[in-house]
Every structure is written in structure tokens, then in C-alpha cells.
Amino acid sequence: MKKNTFRKAGVAVLTMAMLLSTGALSAVNVSAADESITVAASTGLKAGDKVRVYQVAGMNASNKWEWKNGFGSVTGVPTKVSDIKDYDNDATEAFANLLAKNVSGKTFTSGSVGTAVSVSRGYYLVIAAPSEAGKIAQPMLIEVGDDARVTISNTKVSTITLDKTITAVTKGGTVKTGGKSAQAEKGAVVTYRLAAQIPEYDDGVTAADVQDYVLKDKCDATLTIDTDSIKSFVAATKDAATGTAKGTVSGASATGFTVTMSGNDVLSNAKNYLIVTFNATVGDDPTIAQGKTDRTDANKNDAEVTYGNNFTTGGKSDTDGDGDIDEDDEQPKLEDYADVYASAVLVNKFKEDGTTVFPNVKFELHKDTATGEKVASASGTDLTDANGQIYFKGLDAGTYVLVEVKTNATKDYKTLDPITIEVTNTGSDSVFSATANGSALTLSANNDYNGGKVTAFADNITNEKLETLPATGGIGTYIFTIGGAAIVLLAGALFVVYMKKRRVEE
To answer: Model pTM?
Structure first.
């Protein structure tokens, strides 16, 4: 590999800032001014992220190079500073990692990304600590010449990712594009998939030093995880369907679980993906979509990954820039989620006047057709309550048929023809619309049901009275009943007389 050479009156970057994935060299800008080092906001780092700058070597009174800050006594550091001038990029990178493992107790200047740190002529170890989850920065060794300012525009950063998606829903549910959400009805089984990239550390990191790689999943009580369905494996790509079984599952319950990878597995599977799949069932009382954008009307399932974000040790990094790794250093964690949305229909039943409620009317809601799968009401009964209401909760987008099986006990009202209800979702995850026999239903959050407010598509249904036969003199249909009976009796008598006469003639 081509070796670096250094200009006497300039700046040389030994461990150049570059992306791990591409190995591209960073840009270094030099101008005549007081000496300084600036780590610029770039891929992997953002303004305000903490930076520590350690002087590694400088000039002594005799204008000769010497090790500074106690780095000369670190095992593996050459006797002469000039020896590092012959290092190629790989050797320089390894040297920077070695120094970073031995910074405990050494003096540094604290800075932040985007802000210049004043230095003098010399060699410096620069350690950035990304606050953004999924980022691990490699230490850099920089030479600063007289009257020079160094700007590092692309820091060498390892990026890891976490992706949570829904891959399937039973009972006709719909997975939205990208798998970040789905529409489903109660009782539907939702299949989730987690793909978490495993970090890569310095070759010198040992398994004993690596922080556990921990993936946690937690869902709302409206979803029930099938603990027997939890599977975990490692694969080279995040879309792989199979791989080597890895990860220890613990704490599995109806609402969550944890998968842990220890040091050996983390190091041996660097840059691969820990993939976890599992199923959860939508409960009988799911959260109902109300068109909100803050996930409060979703049936939520969240995941997070915690890991060692120190490239040279595999443990925690100094995110607060104070030189110590302690409880003040926030542990970045990757987070992602995939949500399930459901709808509902509330039927308000009135007599023909449109204001008098009609309790004890038997309704059934069926999927697709009037004889399709029956959807249970929220109360568990098919009868309208004392307020003339019946509530069907936890519906997916689709076709439903509302059937009035039996009207109120009174004989004065007709039974309604079946009503076709179409629930659709064509826009935002939490925005449904619905029609009844082609007429739009109104999304309402102001209906009382079972002591609380419900959000559903509300339809006011009225029963028409049966038509009655005209009445005369106040006796109504009785005259027709009596007359009909008399005719029947007369016909019977005539038949008897006829039969007697026939026998006589014979």
C-alpha cells in the first residue's frame, strides 16, 4: 500500500477522515493562521457532538520531536516520533486506535463538532463521540504544522441500523408500502420483522470487553405476542429469510421480549444483521384510528437496540466529552416501530320519528356478505342498548354487511333490509373513511357508549312502521276477521249438506 509522506511546513493527516464503507479520503483545508483543528459536521457527525483532542507529540526546546502527554510509555509506541512517518494508512489507523485505548488520565482539550480547537505544532489524537444512535467514530491521528488550521470534513464513521417492519396480516389485513404500518381487525395475526445491523470494532478489541448487543421489543396491551413464534438468526443481508441461529431470548411475555448477543457473537458477526421475527394478535379492544399523527391512535409495537459505541474498546464512549466514561455519558440507542390501525362503526337506532331511541333491536355485522364471518360487537351482545346503540370495534378496511335480525318486540315496525358498509383507507395510516349503501358515514368522537366517548363512523338508522289496513267505525281490522270466519263456516256447512244429498241419491 502506498505510504504517506509529510511536508515540513504544512499539514499531514495520518488517519484521514473517511467513511468505513467506502474508504474515501477526507478533505483537509489549510490556511495561514493560528494552529487549530476543526471537526466539521459531516456524514456521521452533527454540530455539537463532543470532540476530545489529545496532544501526542510536539517539539521540545531543542526543536526536536518528542512524545507528549505520557504517550511515549504506551506499549507499542515507537521510540522515535519520526518512525510514524513511514506508516501507511492502515498502520496509522491502527496506531490511532492503540493510542485511543490508552487515553485514561491523559490531558486533552474538549471541543465540539463545528468548533475550532486551538493547538500548537504537533501530532494530535482526535476522538469524536457521535450523539446520534447508530454511529461509531474511529479515532484520528492528525499532524498540524506552523500557522495552520486543519478542517476534517469527513470523519471515519461506522454506521449501524435498525429496521422494524410488518410483513403479513391475516384475516384480510393490509400491509402498507414499506411495512411500517398495517390495517387489521381484531383477532388478526400480525407478523413483525426486526433487522438490526451488528457493529464493527477495532481488530484489537476482545470479546470480554465488548458490551452486549441488546434488542428489546415492546408492544401495547392491545396486541398479544405469541412467545413461541419468536425466532432470531444472523445473516449477511437484512432481507435474508434464513441464517445461523443466534441471540438469546429472555423475558418473553405477551407484551415484549429481549434478544441478547454477547461479545464473541458480536465480533464474529460484525456488519451482519441480527434478524428477529415474531407474531402478535390484535386483541378484542384495539385502539381505534382517529386521524392523528402522533401515534396515539395506533396499536404500537416499538423496538430498540443498545450496543457499545466505542470503536476501540467495544464499550461506551465519552458522549459528554469530559474524558471519563460514566453515568453522565448517554448511551445512544437505535429505535424503530411498526404500528397497526383499526376502525369501528357505531349504530344509533331510532324509531321512525328519528329521535326516539330503539333498544333491544338485534343486529349482526358480517364480513363481505350478509352470511359472511360474524363480527362480535364491543359489548358482546347483538342487541342495541338502552340508548339504541350497538358498537362494532376493531375493523379492518373492507366490506361489511349490517343485518337487522329482529326488530323491537313491538309489532308495529319493519325489519330493515341489509346495509352494505364499506370501510376504506386510501391515505394516512390513521385516516379511514366509510359509506353505508353508498352514502358517507360521519367520523364522530362525540358519541357515548358504555359510559365513555367512542370514535367511530356513526350511522343513524330508523325503522319504518308497518302499513295498517284501513279501519271503519272504529272497529278496524276486526270486521274483516269476523267476516272471513263467517265465510269459512258457511262454506263448511254447504259442503256437509252437499255430501249428505249425494249419499241419498246413490
So the answer is: 0.81
